[in-house]
Amino acid sequence: MATTLNLVGDPDADALLAENPLALLIGMLLDQQVPMETAFAGPKKVADRFGAVDAHRIAAADPDEFVALCARPPAVHRFPKSMAARIQALCNTLVDDYDGDTAALWTSGDPDGRQVLARLKKLPGFGDQKARIFLALLGKQMGVQPAGWREAAGDYGIDGARRSIADVVDDRSLHEVREFKKSMKAAAKKAPAKGSAAE
Questions:
Q1: Which of 7, 2, 47 is closest to 23 using CA atoms?
Q2: Could you list the residue range(s) of the whole structural domain that residue 131 is in?
Q3: Inside any domain, residue 27
Q4: Which of 111, 47, 109 is nearest to 76 (CA)?
């Protein structure tokens, strides 16, 4: 996965994401309820404190100690306890299903885009949208382009889109993605509420 990323804006954090598939996957896992660059900075914090971003080692770590590591300021995520548990659950699944090899998600058995998407959606913490965004990130920035990946990624796979972290390559595109997300949230608030209770 030799490439250059600019998801965090910190050279060391971005280099880790580019060279370590698990770090990139964990960054995607953390990408909720925090700014995108904060989420993708999380794996570097884990690496600095834990010594590595390795599925076998993280899966085997003492849960309480791993929570403490993730909670140490600056925390890996604004919800360090729940996210520490999710990171360990993710690593346990990778160990059990792929012998700890994250890249096997998109290399084992030469899967097409739909198969990779299906594998991603089976991971702890990965719903449909997160899986599609990560597939788009792989295709657009990591050179991982299984047959039909754009179609499987849906709108996130559209060339030239500014919808998600998959489209962030510099400060300008980060701003454009942020503006798109704001517009989507505003549109969602204006839409008629489904059900009886509003948030």
A1: 47
A2: 11-188
A3: yes
A4: 47
DSSP 93: H
One-letter identity of residue 44? K
- The domain that holds 52 is classified in CATH as 1.10.340.30
CA distances 32 to 4, 42, 168, Å, are 23, 12, 16
Domain-located, residue 3: no
Distance between CA atoms of residues 94 and 67, nearest Å = 19
Give the model confidence (pLDDT) of 1-48 as tens digits: 447 899 999 999 999 999 999 999 999 999 999 999 999 999 999 999
- Burial class from Cβ neighbours inside 10 Å (0-12, 13-18, 19+) for residue 10 reads middle
CA torsion 105-35-183-148 (nearest 10°) is -10
pTM for the full predicted model: 0.92
